[in-house]
Amino acid sequence: MNLRPGRWPASYPLALVIALLAFVPVGVLVGLASDSAQLFDAHNLKVLTNTLLLMLFTVLGSVAIGVPLALITAYVQLPWRKFWLILLAAPLAIPSYIGAFTLYAAFGRGGEIQQWLGLPMPTVNGLAGATLVMTLYSYPFVMLTTRASLLSLDASLVNAARTLGMTIGASLWRVVLPRVVTGIAAGALLVALYSLSDFGTPAIMRLDTFTRVIFVEYNAFGLSQAAMLSLQLLVIVGLVLFLESRVRGSKEKPGRHLTLWPSRGHKLMMALSIAPVTLLAIVLPLLVFGTWLLREGTGGFDATYAWNSAHASFLAALVAVVLAIPVAHAAIAGRAGRFMERLTYFGFGVPGIVMGTALVYVGLQLPLLYQTLALLVLAYVLRFLPLAVGSVRSTAEGLDPSLVKAARLLGASPREAFQRITLPLTLRGMVAGAALVFLEAMRELPATLMLGPTGFETLATYLWRVYEAGYFGRAAIPGLLLVLMSALGLALMLSGERRAEFDVTGK
Questions:
Q1: Is the pTM for the entire model greater than 0.70?
Q2: Which of 195, 371, 394, 469 is most open to solvent, judged by the fewest CB atoms within 10 Å of its CB?
């Protein structure tokens, strides 16, 4: 490809500017951290240890739960199979800080469980509590990526192993699981990224990880030290992102689908193993919020919080889609465009607390932006732009190129062909991308806490304020609204997965 500027596709210049914008937070943090006197000390070592232990234990727990559930949902013939898949993926519809909040309130002396049953319960906090919460709300990453790999396998090798006398358990362990290692690894790396970037769970569980300590330094006006800690966290995130980029999916040709028919005893065992996960991750938070709603009513909740969340998220979704169009079409146009697209994905790997630290400094240098809605929207766009880019690109790649060629032969200019053919046909992907950005922005907590205008409360920040103040009962309405909005995002994500994968089973 000739990369002289005059020969570049029209989408390249704007895509390059957008891609470089994704690296602005890193440049800001490097400059800001240069003023910090503390590069690494004993406290940093403790924070690093806690962060890595939380990541490691969460990954191990998610694999231990997610892989068996992937096998069950992929191969075992159960009544209402679609329902079980949705139920087991449902923890993705609950932000982990909501799960941490409700588990913290339910357990311990005087907690909700003791008030319900009269039984004293142990306190859930620290490393054990944070690991429990993060595992409950991140295992679906492993389950879904592993399940996708399982559904692509040919059952003939398992059948051959069975004819040679191998038990079904040994066949799954020695024949199936080694062939889906990449799917397990892909899900485990997503869990690692999620645990590294999460702020609410470690903060509520009072565990000093990088995200919590960065926020403490920011509140103590230690912006330079917060930037130094942010860069240290980014090094770990960058390593995980590099490992994720090296993971490749299975190249195996799909064949006959493996089907397992369980006995009544096996069904009972599976139900008993699934029950604790669903009770802790889904039923308990909804029960706690329902109890608070009945006890406290809607007192203290202002509908403005929901409007603020929707308003800021809508603006972010609109801007993200507008910026995603040139990036997505540049990625289709050639290798340089694909590289630009990969650069924009960097922002998605930057934790919200790190993005907030960088943009706070930008706001301090540009007073017109400081504590404005525009700066908050910029943070959302930089973080969630890849969601819009991926959606627009996948739709655009499915277009028939002959339509554009026909328009060009009939005398349309490249711009006219884009406006009258390409753009309308990619509208579905644009709407889907905007919906994903909107829903993720609604859930974002740390960046909103740091960058929101004075007096600007969203559902997420209001939930955080009532936690800090100890008015737990007032969290019912914002918590339930956030769960509802997140459930819409989960339905959007699973709709294509269900169409693609349940067709394989013939169900």
A1: yes
A2: 469
